[in-house]
Amino acid sequence: MNLISAHPVYARLYPSGASLTVGANAYITSRHQMDCSGSLSVGEFSALAGHNSRVLTHSIDIARDAQAAYPVVIGERSFVGTRCLLLGGATLPGLSVLAAGSVLTRSREPEESGLWAGVPAKFKGPVRGDWFTRTKMSTNRVFIPETGATVEDAF
Asked: What DSSP designation does 127 have?
């Protein structure tokens, strides 16, 4: 139930435009909208998770009175939460989390790995957890807050 699109003019005019690349053991959950006109790259072991996130790679360049498209990159072992907006030229660094509801705008180098949150998203601090070092595409474990127990192979 994802909507994936790209205008054909970008495939014709941009050397790496109009493409979607999903790295090994990465995934995109359901109900997202992805404009891949400028290209979208999802790094290895990363997730475009939750629901209703949008990737918009192209827009009007007001100064030039022209359409322009820029790539969006989700770095390796990164996690995008629900209802995020990633705009053309944005890069979520590897080993990072984009918090639910955040807007990631065009990146300025260098970027730090960690938690990015807000509108626009800003670096909030480091993140850590077993998710970042997993060896499988997704987890089959379920944590039960009421008991503090974790059930292995629940799915």
From this structure: -
Q: How far apart are CA 127 and CA 97, in angstroms?
A: 8
Closest CA to 127 of 139, 141, 115: 115
pLDDT digits (tens, 9 = 90+) for 73-125: 999 999 999 999 999 999 999 999 999 999 999 987 778 999 999 999 999 99
Q: Is 145 left (phi over 0), alpha (psi -120 to 50) or beta?
A: alpha
Q: How far is CA 54 from CA 63, 75, 86, in A?
A: 25, 17, 6
| Residue 152 CB coordination number (10 Å) | 8
Task: State the Cα torsion 40-56-100-80 to the nearest 10°.
Answer: 0
C-alpha pair distances (Å), 82 with each of 16, 64, 102: 27, 33, 9
Q: Is 11 helix (H, G, I), strand (E, B) or coil?
A: helix
Q: What domains does the chain contain, in order, with CATH numbers?
A: 3-129 (2.160.10.10)
Do the beta carbons of residue 84 and residue 55 sit within 8 Å?
no
Q: What is the pTM of this model?
A: 0.93
The Cα 35–Cα 40 span in angstroms is 8
